[in-house]
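Slide 14.
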Amino acid sequence: MKLATLDDGTRDGQLAVVSRDLKTAQLADGVARSLQRALDDWSFIAPQLEAIYQDLNQGRARRVFDFEPANCMAPLPRAFQRVAGAAYVHHVELMRKARGAETPASFWDAPLMCQAGSDELRGPADDIALLHEQWGIDFEAEVAVITDDVPMGATPDQAHQRIRLLVLANDVSLRNLMPDELAMGGGFLQSKPGASFSPVAVTPDELDDAWKGGKVHLPLRSTWNGKLVGQPHAGVDMVFNFPQLIAHLAATRTVRAGTIVGSGAVSNKHAKRGSSCIAGLRALETLAGGEPVTPFMAFGDTIRIEMLNADGKSVFGAIEQKVTQKTL
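Slide 15: predicted structure.
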């Protein structure tokens, strides 16, 4: 099924069930006020949401309205935990090589992961509002999962059974702030101002055969100012699948329902498939023997991130954002 959170003026929004074709929706107010509420009691609430979903798709729903992605918040507008992974190790290797650094062999043995901001997650049409272009504004197209409770010490197989929903994400990065933060030996903080998410979150069964091995086997398209800059395949070159990422996170802690685990920028070894971020393009330019020529984003730029199924239909709806200057 497909779920969205509509902006009703509250912090957590109103949960809605969305039709498979993303054209209509129905509020889930009689079942669960918010997506977090549904995740907190998934085994009881999910079947009720599924019944609404089936009615929507078969034309039996009574309180139907047109679905407008522009009215959506992030499916989880705020989450108890968000974790950024680096499942596409090739991307990490590329970025390090471009700045003259080696990739430790351990990066291929265990996933690189870090905590990420989760107190204010943007909707699919929210502006990327920032103070300065000079920060090096970059989009970063990713796939992410939302979990149920995962016990400490869970195996990848056990973690696989706890994946409840999948979403697309734009994990905005401020590339010119990253070197100083890396030099201090800590993780990214100021250089990661906030992520944005697709209009809908989908259950794994919505992907049919494209969901296998804990990976999404579809291309992820990024269109910057109307120009396609990349459509790397999310199921290719993903060294650590989502069950492995979740198991790594749960090795020393219980993971609670509503945790968002991101894949990191989707990246393929074959450069012809393009990139999921500007930094990837610039790294290739650097390694080709010159200075990078592709600029970072400027105020007024737009970014669209979307995933189409084998029939050319949008699975999650699109993230469509504009970079704007925030005034104090």
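Speaker note: The longest strand covers residues 163-174.
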